[in-house]
Design goal:
Helix content is 32%, strand content 52%. By secondary structure, the protein is an alpha+beta fold. It has one domain: START domain (Alpha-D-Glucose-1,6-Bisphosphate, Chain A, domain 4, 2-Layer Sandwich), CATH 3.30.530. Strand 5 and strand 6 form a beta hairpin. Helix 2 crosses helix 4. It is globular.
């Protein structure tokens, strides 16, 4: 399943880069993230509770950052599983200066198996976009609070 979108952040690309690769900011910004621990260079173990449509569950997995080209783009590789199914994804995040801030363009391919796959892309795609939108709004609030301090 292909996913993509854009978000305009008021912070400059260098700052957005820092936030997107800071485990504390990521944990605080990801909806349902209960744990995000570094297990190696640019690799994290994560625990999240997520509801997608009528299915809610806890997922354990890993997040790996690859192909970093600071402050322009990077890849994010995700693996997760829970009682409701398994998810794997390969995403590309690109940061571009725009209007005094940063245009964040993201795209990726997600593989979903198990009960999650049975509910279908019609439910999963809007839920994924909602989670990503919530993430970027939370990250912007974090950037704003740092700028004011």
């Amino acid at each position: 399943m292909q996913l993509s979108g854009e978000h305009q952040s008021p912070a400059p690309p260098e700052r957005v880069w820092e936030f997107m690769l800071d485990p504390a900011v990521l944990k605080a910004s990801l909806p349902g993230c209960e744990r995000l621990e570094e297990i190696g260079p640019d690799e994290y173990a994560a625990t999240m509770t997520i509801g997608i449509g009528p299915i809610k569950g806890k997922y354990e997995g890993t997040v790996k950052i690859a192909d970093k080209n600071e402050p322009n783009d990077f890849r994010m590789l995700i693996e997760g599983k829970g009682a409701q199914g398994q998810v794997s994804g390969d995403g590309h995040i690109q940061l571009s200066p725009k209007d005094g801030g940063t245009l964040i363009s993201w795209s990726g391919d997600a593989q979903v198996r198990g009960l999650l796959a049975r509910i279908g892309a019609r439910v999963i795609q809007p839920a994924a976009k909602s989670i990503v939108g919530h993430f970027f709004k939370s990250m912007d609030k974090h950037a704003e609070s740092i700028a004011q301090s």
